[in-house]
Write a structure and sequence with these properties.
single chain, alpha/beta, Rossmann fold, binds adenosine-5'-diphosphate, ATP-binding, EC 2.7.1.25, APS_kinase_dom, nucleotide-binding, kinase
Length: about 200
């Protein structure tokens, strides 16, 4: 008799004490995706939730370093990231993805990879003028100088989400308030049931 067969089956959810899922933050560069992802992760980790942040900018230095900014490459960038997020969610993590992900098709594809109650599309919204004024990485400035062609919002399209699960208006709301709203939405959805 195989000794392993006698062990009771244990799910990732039982092991970790919470559900897995993907929180997909989409929006223009400078809208606040990375900031909110980091703050949310800190708060969840403190509450004992096993998380991982997949930041689009960072992935472009590794996993997606071979990709450019053509529509095809952008689609591939999102697809690969979605697959990694799916694998991590399968392993029981609450994955927070922060990437522009400009096209509806890519975001729908990401949603299709996990059960519907385990995916939250969050539109991190700020008007282009506000994002450009913030310009946290100096990229809008470079784009306006013509040094960064195909920059989203300047000379490459961003398709506004048509049916996001949540909209965070970062031009009108503080980081803390955005994170609190997101946390409550996660609780509503039953992804995170900690007190
Ligand atoms: P993105 O990841 O979308 O490119 P970042 O998070 O890198 O954007 O930068 C957003 C900038 O906007 C940061 O400097 C952040 O401090 C600022 N900011 C102001 N208000 C908010 C808010 N409510 N939520 C997120 N970021 C905000």
């Amino acid at each position: 008799m195989n000794a392993l067969a006698e062990l009771p089956a244990v799910t990732h959810e039982q092991l970790k004490g919470h559900k897995a899922g993907i929180v997909w933050l989409t929006g223009l560069s400078g809208a606040g995706k990375s900031t909110i992802a980091c703050e949310l992760e800190l708060r969840l980790r403190r509450a004992g939730v096993h998380t991982c942040v997949l930041d689009g900018d960072k992935l472009r230095h590794g996993l997606n370093a071979d990709l450019g900014y053509s529509p095809q490459d952008r689609a591939c960038n999102v697809q690969r990231t979605a697959h990694v997020a799916q694998l991590m969610a399968d392993a029981g993590l609450l994955v927070i993805v922060a990437m522009i992900s400009p096209y509806n098709e890519g975001r729908l594809y990401a949603r299709s990879l996990v059960p519907s109650d385990q995916f939250l599309e969050v539109f991190v919204h700020a008007p282009l003028a506000v994002c450009e004024q913030r310009d946290p990485k100096g990229m809008y400035r470079q784009a306006r100088l013509g040094l960064l062609p195909n920059f989203t919002g300047i000379d490459s399209a961003y398709e506004t989400p048509t049916q996001p699960d949540l909209v965070l208006n970062t031009a009108e709301t503080t980081v803390a308030a955005c994170v609190q709203t997101l946390k409550m939405r996660l609780q509503q959805q039953g992804i995170w049931n900690c007190a």
